[in-house]
Design goal:
The longest helix is centred in the middle third of the chain and has 19 residues. Helix 5 packs parallel to helix 8. The protein is α/β, with parallel strands linked by helices. It is 35% helix and 19% strand.
Length: 256
């Protein structure tokens, strides 16, 4: 069961509260003590500089290095999710989020949270789902292995585009933003890394307006939790098993 360690009562069923912030930054975290404080601080500073009312939610996914306590000290709301997995952590964070917009990003320092205002601006301008593109941005030296950059990511991204017509250049980029009120219709269920593909596929199926933004991708701090073969196979099963063209339900009236 997800535990929210904060004085603020989070809503279930993705319901809004009267005092809901404009932006919820959701960061999954498993043993990222070396980077989590900088990530939380960077996100809070970006929102403060842009005068955005926001919250930072860190989902502690079973850390043993004190990451949760460090995030809380840095000013984050900490959600404890015992079920291991990238997707499981995000689903817990989405449930706790109260903002009109949700911004996603990793806890390892690889994404520049000072860029989150660009994602918010794109949503304000009419996008429904904004995804960063490392491929069209700047990949810093040492940030991505040759195998991931020139084999793994292009193959999975090409398969997703071919089967589902997403037309994106970097479907596995972890820095994203979307309208929280789309969560119920997205019906995300994946508990592993394949959540990244599921979110893109479901957004295409629902006819959401998708926009890409070139971003910087920095070397991660600390040890990677990726299992390339296992994670890749789960992505492939999801891509092949998802229905390409289901009926599309209309957008909420306020955004039609």
């Amino acid at each position: 069961m997800t535990r929210i360690d904060t004085g603020v009562t989070a809503t279930n069923g993705y319901g809004a509260e009267k005092t809901a912030p404009h932006v919820s930054v959701v960061i999954p975290c498993l043993d990222e003590a070396r980077a989590i404080v900088a990530c939380v601080t960077e996100a809070r500073a970006a929102m403060d500089a842009a005068d955005l009312d926001g919250e930072v939610i860190v989902v502690d996914n079973g850390s043993t290095d004190g990451s949760g306590d460090l995030a809380r000290t840095a000013g984050a709301i900490v959600v404890s999710e015992p079920r291991r997995g990238y997707g499981a952590a995000y689903l817990a964070g989405f449930e706790a989020a109260r903002g009109t917009y949700v911004v996603m990003g990793d806890a390892d320092g690889s994404y520049d949270f000072s860029e989150l205002t660009r994602f918010v601006e794109a949503l304000d301008a009419g996008a429904d789902f904004v995804i960063g593109s490392r491929m069209r941005g700047r990949i810093h030296p040492g940030a991505m292995s040759w195998l991931h950059r020139y084999v793994g990511n292009p193959v999975l991204n090409g398969l997703l585009n071919a089967l589902h017509g997403a037309g994106v250049s970097d479907s596995h980029c972890g820095m994203r933003a979307f309208h929280r009120d789309d969560l119920e219709r997205l019906e995300l269920r994946s508990t592993g890394m394949e959540l990244a593909s599921e979110q893109v596929i479901r957004s295409v199926q629902l006819g959401l307006v998708i926009r890409e933004l070139p971003i910087d991708y920095r070397p991660r701090i600390g040890r990677s939790k990726l299992s390339p073969l296992a994670d890749g196979m789960r992505h492939v099963r999801l891509l092949v098993g998802s229905t390409p063209n289901p009926s599309r339900r209309p957008l909420p009236e306020s955004r039609s």
